[in-house]
Design brief:
This protein is an alpha/beta fold. About 40% of the residues lie in helices and about 15% in strands. The chain has a single domain, classed as Rossmann fold. Helix 1 crosses helix 10 and helix 2 crosses helix 3. It starts with 7 loop residues before the first strand and ends with a helix. This is AB hydrolase-1 domain-containing protein. Pfam families: Abhydrolase_6 (PF12697).
Length: about 260
Amino acid sequence: MEKNNIYHYVLVHGDCHGAWCWYKLSTLLKSLSHKVTAIDMAGSGTNLKLVQQIRSITDYFEPLMLFMEALPMDESVILVGHSRGGIDISVAMERFPTKIAAAVFVTASMPGPQLDLPTVSKEFDGQSGSPMDNEFTYSEGKDKPPTSYLIGPKFLASRLYQLSPAEDITLAMCLIRPSPLFVDFHESSKETALTRENYGSVPRAYVVCEQDNCMKEEMQRWLIHNNPPNEVKVIKGSDHMAMMSKPNDLCLFLLEIGGKYCSG
């Protein structure tokens, strides 16, 4: 990578997290003079919306879409989505393909033109195991599906952060917020529809985290098999939170992606 090649990375978090979870990776990339924008999705991090105000998956995506819309037409970014953030960046790829040099899915959901979100969600639910101490909210009544949830401390420590420093678990427990759940598969399928012409025109890379206890490697490989990306990178010894447990490895791969897809 040449020194004068400055890339712009846009980082999108997963459930219950926020822009804060990228603090290690952001610091590494910025120390190399790259530009970094970490987004707080609706109801996440410092975003002022409450989870009960988020009525649709489109509402949840809004901060990322507004950011992409405001980008100058001659600027392109590298989108990085973690966990459920893969859905967010997929929709951004569909809506703003010319503004995205590449998209990186870090142990993330990765729907595609031939792999819709309901199919991905059902496969994940079938492999996800016990919710342990996660807290679910039923704002439409106990006889209806839950409308939001908050990751519990035991789930967080054993399924997401089991290989991350203890300080990062403490940080997460201070900052996580409830995430909305969208159970109307028909509606979410329409809102997240992807095409070969738009989504398919953006180069994709997938980061496999071998020791992920949340999105198991089997699920990650299923996504790769059913929606093959241009690149696959395996990070050994990483839990679900690769940006916490293996920030240097993730940073190096993102620099490789920048060098390959942003040069010239």
